[in-house]
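Summary of Year 1 activities. Much of the first year was spent building the evaluation harness for sequence design. The harness presents a backbone, in tokenized form, and records the residue chosen at every position. We chose the following record to illustrate the format because it has been used consistently in internal testing since the harness was completed.
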């Protein structure tokens, strides 16, 4: 019988791509999502792509009864915990909302895991735990200082610490935190992708919407950074690579006694202008830009040393920036209104 995995936030950007890969790899999948930043249509398309169904519970991870329904009666091998709020800017305006969902939601989930006798967890952490590193500190390995500089990053740092404390206090936990750098792109089928509510905060979806004419211009924050072209450097990672990272993480859980953290990054730093150029190549469209001053809280440069994940999880990013942009453009142009098409 196939093993079952519970995916919180499975209707979201990374969650939906991970569900496709899980179903394709033979896992039975249950999803709990409150659809606060996603739609039921994403999961319908996941099922269509995989040619198999999944179990869906619409509910909040803060709601113990909804979590109990999501776990159901049968055995559950592991949980992948994506459900969270993720906008840095919004987290500065509403820190308590972020602590409630991201930290409180994880405490609620861990309680439900205990009730259902499940001790295997893959947690979505983030490169924001590293804060604003000095450019010469890159590439960032897992032991780089964790100096998160905004409430969103702090929630990820606190949850990582909480998971460590839990695993130290109680034998039998197998927990892996994956620190994603900058997931981007879409499924190569063009059927699922990133569908942010409102105006996107991230560079790639914003640039795609400008290329598509859905937004008038792209705001570039900071052109006087000490980098090769003056713009900030990030490590963009294809979302399908992020998804396969979760499969490798599940395979590796038994080998983790307690807690471990891994970077998921491509290991290459790309500037904002280089991304814009790649979006132009992929779309064949202009991307009008407005150059603005630096945005508070933005790091100059952050890219990963992904060697540990390659060595211990057997995972590495297979797709490059042009793949990311080509797939993101297919998704954008075939679904101009996202899942609202
Ligand atoms: N996308 C990125 O750039 C990035 C980078 C690093 C880490 N992460 C982390 O990865 C995870 C997934 O990110 P994503 O980009 O897919 O975001 P997303 O917003 O697309 O997905 C999150 C999903 O969780 C759901 N959700 C939110 N609050 C919930 C709650 N209280 N109960 C149930 N469901 C809830 C949302 O409806 C959404 O479907 C998040 O934990 C995020 O912090 C994302």
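For this record, the design step produced the sequence shown next.
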């Amino acid at each position: 019988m196939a093993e079952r995995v519970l995916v919180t936030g499975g209707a979201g950007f990374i969650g939906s791509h991970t569900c496709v890969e899980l179903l394709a790899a033979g896992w039975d999948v249950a999803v709990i999502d409150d659809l606060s930043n996603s739609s039921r249509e994403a999961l319908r398309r996941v099922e269509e792509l995989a040619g198999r169904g999944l179990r869906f519970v619409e509910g909040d991870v803060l709601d113990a009864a909804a979590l109990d329904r999501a776990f159901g009666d049968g055995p559950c091998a592991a949980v992948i915990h994506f459900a969270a709020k993720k906008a840095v800017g919004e987290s500065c305006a509403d820190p308590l909302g972020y602590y409630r969902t991201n930290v409180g939601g994880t405490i609620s989930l861990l309680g439900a895991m205990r009730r259902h006798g499940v001790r295997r967890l893959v947690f979505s952490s983030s490169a924001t735990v590293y804060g604003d590193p000095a450019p010469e500190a890159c590439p960032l390995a897992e032991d780089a200082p964790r100096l998160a500089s905004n409430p969103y990053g702090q929630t990820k740092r606190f949850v990582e610490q909480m998971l460590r404390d839990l695993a130290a206090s109680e034998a039998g936990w197998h927990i892996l935190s994956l620190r994603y750098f900058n997931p981007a792109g879409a499924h190569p089928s063009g059927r699922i992708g990133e569908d942010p509510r409102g105006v996107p905060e991230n560079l790639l979806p914003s640039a795609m919407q400008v290329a598509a004419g859905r937004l008038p211009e792209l705001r570039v924050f900071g052109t006087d950074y000490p980098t090769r072209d003056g713009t900030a450097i990030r490590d963009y990672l294809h979302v399908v690579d992020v998804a396969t990272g979760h499969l490798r993480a599940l395979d590796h859980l038994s080998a983790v006694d307690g807690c471990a953290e891994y970077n998921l990054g491509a290991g290459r730093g790309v500037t904002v202008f280089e991304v814009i150029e790649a979006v132009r190549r992929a779309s064949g469209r202009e991307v009008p830009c407005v150059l603005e001053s630096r945005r508070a809280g933005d790091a100059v440069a952050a890219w990963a040393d992904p060697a540990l994940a390659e060595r211990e999880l057997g995972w590495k990013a297979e797709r490059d920036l042009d793949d990311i942009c080509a797939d993101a453009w297919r998704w954008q142009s075939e679904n101009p209104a996202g899942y609202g098409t």
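The two ends are 37 Å apart (CA to CA). Quantitative recovery figures across the full test set are reported in Table 2.
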